[in-house]
Amino acid sequence: MQWHNTDLSIPGNGGFDLELIRSYNSALITPTDNLGSFNGGNQPVGVGWQMHLGKVISKSDAKVCSNTIVSTIDNPVLELPDGSSQIFSFTNDSNARVMTAKRWKAECSNGETIVYSPDGTKYLMGKIVKSNPDPKAIYSLYPTKITDKNGNYAVITYENRGPRITQISTNDGRVVDFGYSDYIVPSSSGNYTISLLSAISSVGKTVKYYYSQVPDRGAFFLSQVIRSDGNSWNYSYYANTGTATDNRYLLKQVETPYGGTFNYSYSVFRPIGGTSNAAV
Question: What confidence score (pLDDT) does residue 39 get?
């Protein structure tokens, strides 16, 4: 199950708008782990949620354009800010060696990976985050500069560790600042901290984020998002009621700023060729 919401939108020159989209995907959650791995837990916006400006996921190495893949199941994957994804394929086209079915393409030269959208927008994928130790490493490449076909651009700055954005600035003077708060997780081997997104601010508008700890795991749920107008999104999740259930830790209810409520239930299925079940 997926849920998407635009938390902040700032218009720009020639349609080069800054849109910060928060997306939820139940497939990111693996109940059997500690909800702290790359695929499930301590994302900067809580369990199952993401906020980014696009990324490329590679299972082989950080060289997206190197056709060293043994199986197509390991091909690099492009993930867009709304959570949708496309698989890169290796072609014989000298102008587009690595391309998706929807005409996004990747080029690699001088140690840089660049992704182009069908409308000509250029993404310099300069931030590389490695998850899991070798030989099961996963590399995620995030954009450090986005340039449209008219020359408008945005520079994205990250923390040294992980994919946490600290600021976005554009050539026409727009700036978005990101703030984070540390949450303490008790542990028998010693307490540790998790840094989660607490606010995004720009041109007098601020969106705030609040969390609650998963009762039996070292991770946090996103529980509330307060918009710049003071109204809020509120979220609740299923508890861990046993290994036989389909919905452990998944999004249960969404309360909208307009007074509406959405409730979700889940069933398990195993994709064709898959090795594990998924809840939908």
Answer: 38
